[in-house]
Amino acid sequence: PGHKKMTYVSLIGKKANDMRQELLLFFQSLERYVQDYSGPVGGAFHFRRNEWRRFWSEEVSPRLLRREQAGSYLFRFDQPLDSVYILLEGGCCVEKYKPSGGVFTDSSRYPLQMFGLLEGIAGVPAYTATMRCAEDCVCLKAPVETCLHLLRSNPDLMWLALQFLSSFSMEYMDASDLLILHDPEFLILSRLCRCCLGKSFPVTVPYKKEDLANGLNLNLRTVYRYLARFYESGLLSSVRGKITITQQQYQAIESYLSAK
After folding, report:
1. What's the rounded Cα separation, in Å, for the pair 248 and 260?
2. Can you tell me the distance from the alpha carbon of 58 to that of 62, in angstroms, rounded to the nearest whole number?
3. For 154-181, b where at least 16 C-beta lie within 10 A, e where not — what string?
4. Who has the most CB within 10 Å: 106, 208, 221, 243?
């Protein structure tokens, strides 16, 4: 029995070491790819479909990679923090519960994103939001302590984490500025443009108009009123009730926003 127990413990240790090595290789491959891709610190990383395959193969680490269907949850608010999720493909919604009991949805998380890293570094013991897949997603899931150990022991990987956290902070500061400084027309078009980053045209916006209104803190009727104007002017299209944006429309929206 003692021999079997030692063999079992050794096997567990080997699996943990293998996972740590796989995760290290992943971060190193990502870090090299981002060096050529990212530009300045704080810049956003927008990955197109299957772009992650340029620096990583699913066959290398099938234990770390997960495929989640649209509508499934990666984690929920106040769930104990045990893993870091790296979104490689698809789109996610951030859900938070209002004191009144309603749900606030911000459908703006697209690759490349790291979920749980901020809480892990800050020492927060639980996830601070609920993350739902708005589309079919591919993500890497790794134990948070393993991720933190690798970041502490490797300056290049720590720098990579700082880049992502800077991008995350800049995105939220920009969103705050938008809400304070701009009118509903600008807010709606800016949010819809963000949905097109890293996507092939035509782009179908993957979330409901209620989510758009909640994310921008706008009245739902206001959102419908502006969308009707955009449809009429040709800035947007509606296909089977979904907001759709062609490449020509995207370029027209960018020009329109730049002129405001």
Report:
1. 19
2. 6
3. beebeebbebbeebbeebeeebeeeeee
4. 243
What backbone torsions phi and psi does residue 211 show, to the nearest 5 degrees?
-65, -40
DSSP-assigned letters across all residues of 126-184: B-SSEEEESS-EEEEEEEHHHHHHHHHH-HHHHHHHHHHHHHHHHHHHHHHHHHHHS-H
The pair of structure tokens assigned to 35 is 């060096």
Residue 241 makes CB contacts below 8 A (sequence gap 6+) with: none
Alpha helices in the chain (DSSP H): 2-37, 117-122, 144-153, 155-181, 184-194, 209-216, 220-233, 247-259
Q: Could you tell me the pTM of the whole model?
A: 0.64
3-state secondary structure of 194: helix
Reported as type and span, the H/E element at residue 67 is strand 65-68
Average pLDDT over residues 147-174: 81
State the Cα–Cα distance between residues 5 and 137, nearest whole angstrom: 39
* Cα(107)–Cα(213) distance, integer angstroms: 11
Distance CA 187, CA 212 (A): 10
> Would the CA dihedral through 116, 40, 248, 255 be positive or negative?
positive
Residues 6+ apart with CB under 8 A from 22: 60, 61, 63, 64
Local structure of 73: helix, strand or coil: strand
Q: What is the per-residue pLDDT for 11?
A: 37
Amino acid (one-letter) located at 201: F
Q: Helix or strand or coil: residue 242?
A: strand
Q: For the purposes of burial, counting CB atoms within 10 Å of the CB of 42, is it exposed (0-12), middle (13-18) or buried (19 or more)?
A: middle
